[in-house]
Amino acid sequence: MAKLTKDEILAYLDEATILELNDLVKAIEEKYGVSAAAPVAAAAAPAEAVDTAPKNVTVVMSSFGESKVAVIKVVRTITGLGLVEAKKLVDTVPAEIKKDVPADEAENIKKQLTEAGATVEFK
């Protein structure tokens, strides 16, 4: 029996009817003990990979709460701003504290600001 080339196989597949292709798939499954059905777990895996991919967010302070001085100190630490700049930033709530940061870093920033009394959200 002559060995078929990849191009010859593809040409056959282009010309075959649905019934012929269905018979071919069944024969391959039986002969080689494989299944043409897509596994459910494999189909779900790419969606999970997308969901767990690191996302960058913007940390926005919506309120400085009761302790404005403590929040200004934390904002200075997080942003590296001077006292006057940090105070202006806190005074202009809602204010972007840090833009386009990884989610884990954003959670850390939120924790620090929340402990100081601020209200924080992500965008």
Describe the structure in your own words.
The protein has 6 helices and 3 strands, in the order αααβααβαβ. The protein is α+β, with helices and mostly antiparallel strands. The chain folds into 2 domains: 6-48, no CATH class; 54-122, 2-Layer Sandwich (Ribosomal Protein L30, Chain: A). A 3-stranded antiparallel sheet has the order 2-1-3, with helices on one face. The mean pLDDT is 85.
The CATH architecture category of the largest domain equals: 2-Layer Sandwich
Biggest sheet record: 3 strands, antiparallel
Mean pLDDT across residues? 85
> What string, H for helix and E for strand, traces the elements in order?
HHHEHHEHE
